[in-house]
Amino acid sequence: MLNKLMKKYIYKDVDKLYKEQSSKDDIELKQQEIDPNLEKTVKIFKSIYSYPDNKDVKFRDLIIAGINKKATMLYINTITNTDVVEEQVISPLLLNQDSSKKINDIISIQSISTNQKIEDILSEVNKGNAALFVDGIDHAFIISASNFQGRGIEKAENEISLIGSKEAFNEKVMTNISLIRKKIKNENLVFESTTVSKRSKNDLFFVYVKDLVNDDLLRNVKDRVNAIDVDSVQNLAILEQIIEGKKFSIFPTILNTERPDRAATFLENGYIVLLMDNSPASLVLPATFWSFFHTAEDSYLRIFYGNFTRVLRMLAIFIAIFSSAIYVAVTTFHAEMVPPDLLLAIASTREKVPLPALIEVLVLELAFELIREAGLRVPSTIGPTIGIVGALILGQAAVQANIVSPIVVIVVALGGLSSFAVGNIGLNFAVRLSRFIFIFAAGLFGIYGITAAFVLGMFYMVSLKSFGVPYLSPMTPKYLSSGDTILRRMIKNELFRPGYLKPKDMKKKREN
């Protein structure tokens, strides 16, 4: 028995060492340069790509006419534009009759580069480009021919536009770059790329305006991204959770937007935007509370209309957070605060309800959240129906069964509907979770509990920072800026960029 156990552990250790050695050999192989011998080079790449088991990887052998040299074209046909490869690369090589021409001159495609390192060539092929290996040449020709499938440019789904731009980002990063370039036609607009994750090797783009962005802020962002040590980062939603400072905060500190016009506005104020393949959105950083509170429509509307919607939105936030909590506090601890007639009305509706106010509100709040979640997850054609019918049936049945009182249905529905006025998903979740915190505080300590929770919450928000920028700036601490917080100014009076970003150029407008 002892011998069997020893053999088991020995075999296990040997297997582990073998895997580690194989991995080490693969890394060393990929760091080498290609061999001028075409046969050896092709053999290495076939081994790496598990050819011919890997069905979408293609190796096309040909002889270049004119110079009479063997060559092999490598590409992945599911992500490469095969028509471009055939018409602008392979056909010119086969039909060439001029022996004095170089490979770069024979190929008619515009974007072509060379590379020697196996690892770099693999990276280019995995991005959808094609690699041409020629016998006797110690480098590969990289032909730009990527053709990833994806959606076209559509409307934004979460950030509804009434009178502004209707375009939204999609999953193709090059399309997203084009959308931003269309809005900012400036030579100082920079799209700097880096590779994140060890296995997926997805490209991440730092977008900034060179003569506006603060260099220390840019360095801070790059350091956080370069410190990432994970196998896979598939999209910006995952990246956001990795690079944010306070990972357990209920308040978001990085803004996610799917609108190119909004991203362009942030860039022109000195912010940094992150773009990535597979993500139909962008990340804006740093972000303050006001970034999540504002919408793009606020600036497109006339000042009175825009400020009116902002006041409504702020009021909705307070109603969503405090309505249920105040009801619990008043009915449980502070009945003397309610006018006698209203108190009698509340008491009469709660006469047959067996549950305390705290439990009554929590039951209905949870039911509302369940209906909201169910409406999001079911097919879009029946989602609204489930929400409306579910709320009506459950609410009416709960009142008739004397589980909850009618006034609680009104209070919870008012708070739930108010939460829909908060458009940003991150801030919306923060408001919804805060509501439960205040309900528990009200159920335990009444108005004093609500006040204590609010003061602690404000202390917490003041302590938050997003990449070194205070969360409630420019209100607190005070910075020179356009003063765009709860209310915005006339566009002609917005003279300065946000001072908390420390941009290289503070003034938006020059004095005449």
Question: What would a concise description of this structure say?
Answer:
This protein is of the alpha+beta class and 512 residues long.
Give me some keywords for this one:
512 residues; alpha+beta; five-stranded antiparallel β-sheet; 12 strands; 48% helix
Average predicted confidence as pLDDT:
84
Helix coverage percent: 40-55%
Principal-axes shape call = elongated
The number of distinct helices, counting runs of at least 4 residues, comes to: 18
Descriptive overview:
- With 512 residues, this protein is of the alpha+beta class.
- The chain contains 18 helices and twelve strands.
- The N and C termini lie far apart (93 Å).
Task: Give the SSE map.
Elements: H1 2-30, H2 38-48, E1 57-64, E2 69-76, H3 82-95, H4 103-106, E3 112-115, H5 118-126, E4 130-134, E5 140-143, H6 173-183, E6 189-196, E7 202-209, H7 215-226, H8 236-243, E8 255-257, H9 260-267, E9 272-276, E10 282-285, H10 289-293, H11 297-300, H12 303-332, H13 340-349, H14 357-377, H15 383-400, H16 406-419, H17 425-445, H18 447-463, E11 465-466, E12 469-470
Antiparallel strand pairs: 1-2, 2-4, 3-5, 4-5, 6-7, 7-9, 8-10, 9-10, 11-12
